[in-house]
Write a structure and sequence with these properties.
By secondary structure, this protein is of the alpha/beta class. It is 30% helix and 23% strand. The protein contains ten helices and 16 strands. Bound molecules: guanosine-5'-triphosphate, potassium ion and magnesium ion. Keywords: GTP-binding, Nucleotide-binding.
Length: 366
């Protein structure tokens, strides 16, 4: 029996099994087994099989955003509207057959927007170009799930299931669990909070099913069994995501109002150019980019070409963003702006100083 059939069999057994306290343990084991088979499916078996490898598109700019959706929801139309790149659009499905990159210039930052082929149900099990699409999506900093506002709401769930099956966790934080393999000493399991969604017995048997007989596990959050399996598998990707409902020109105000209510959703019409600027603003916020303007001694800061970094960046990152030998030769830096203790005056800082959006930085070398 192939892996796909085994997966199907387990899924059927899970669907047949009623969820209650008595079956919780058995379901936990099934879930662990399922996760193992899915991981196998995603590993390339031979070099030429292509499974697990994405489209070969060079990363460029300061961040990458990937467009995922069923066919004909308007992904290529969005790329063509927001960037200078034209991607073929048409009323028939699977118009786009490869990854097409475009660039959005926004507030001095360059965001790469990747148009991708539409995916179909079952994509995670190898249907269509699904696996290639999702592997490429994993290389992005933000996912835009594009949906057709005129289609049933269920399409969103179906897409989420596909992404979940390949280990992409949307808008979720990594579970707060410390897991350490050892060579001897058995299993030490501690929980600093009360576990209400799973229990010690389930966790121990899952560890056993993974042949993990020596390890330290410290659980610091009320996790589910699935979240524990994610920690064990370790290759999960936790990614921010916006749900973009397109074609709002074709729905009623009542429907629109309902779709726009969700925290992570943005409603647009590519064809009518509605709300596209707002979508870019939201992408900017989700990406959490910071712009740092550099200033040479005695000159005005360069406001046209900032160094773009992630929230949490330090002076060291700023140095590396300018030239790779700079950090090693830093004497000190002067910083003006929100991160300066003496704002509006400059503060003298070292490599570890955290910078903030729109800071101005002068670097002094040895
Ligand atoms: N009514 C309406 N139609 C739209 C809108 N945006 C795109 N379309 C139409 O939707 C159809 C599909 O658009 P595409 O951009 O090719 O969709 P896609 O998601 O790239 O499709 P595939 O590449 O086949 O997966 C085209 O006929 C577009 O004209 C919109 O905002 N409103
Ligand atoms: K299309
Ligand atoms: Mg397309």
């Amino acid at each position: 029996m192939g892996v796909v059939e085994k997966i199907k069999e387990i899924e059927e057994e899970m669907a047949r099994t009623q969820k209650n306290k008595a079956t919780e343990y058995h379901l936990g084991l099934l879930k662990a087994k399922l996760a193992r088979y899915r991981a196998q499916l995603l590993e390339p078996t031979t070099k030429s099989s292509g499974a697990g490898t994405g489209f070969d598109v060079q990363k460029s700019g300061d961040a990458r955003v990937a467009l995922i959706g069923f066919p004909s929801v308007g992904k290529s139309t969005l790329l063509s509207k927001c960037t200078h790149t034209q991607s073929e659009t048409a009323a028939y499905e699977f118009t786009t057959l490869t990854a097409i990159p475009g660039v959005i210039d926004h507030q001095g930052a360059r965001i790469q927007l990747l148009d991708l082929p539409g995916i179909v149900e079952g994509a995670s099990q190898g249907r269509g170009r699904g696996r290639q699409v999702v592997s490429t999506a994993k290389t992005a900093d933000l996912i835009l799930i594009m949906l057709d506002a005129t289609k049933p709401e269920e399409q969103r769930r179906l897409l989420e299931i596909e992404l979940d099956a390949v280990g992409i966790r949307l808008n979720k934080k990594k579970p707060d669990v410390v897991f350490k393999r050892k060579t001897t000493g058995g299993i030490t399991l501690t929980a600093t909070v009360k576990l209400t969604k799973t229990d010690e017995k389930t966790i121990r048997s899952i560890l056993a099913s993974y042949k993990l007989h020596n390890c330290d596990v410290m659980i610091r959050e009320d996790i589910t069994t699935d979240e524990f399996i994610d920690v064990l598998i370790g290759t999960r990707k936790y990614m921010p995501c916006l749900y973009v409902y397109n074609k709002i020109d074709a729905i009623s105000m009542e429907q629109l109002d309902k779709l726009a209510r969700d925290d992570h959703s943005v409603v647009i019409s590519c064809e009518m150019g509605l709300n596209l600027d707002y979508l870019i603003e939201r992408m900017w916020d989700e990406l959490g980019l910071v712009r740092i303007y550099t200033k040479k001694r005695g000159a005005h800061p360069d406001l046209h070409d900032p160094v773009c970094l992630r929230k949490g960046a330090t002076i060291e990152d700023v140095c590396n963003g300018i030239h790779r030998s700079l950090a090693a030769n830093l004497r000190y830096a002067l910083v003006w702006g929100k991160s300066s203790k003496f704002n509006p005056h400059a503060q003298k800082v070292g490599l570890g100083h955290l910078v903030q959006d729109e800071d101005v930085v002068s670097i002094f070398t040895k």
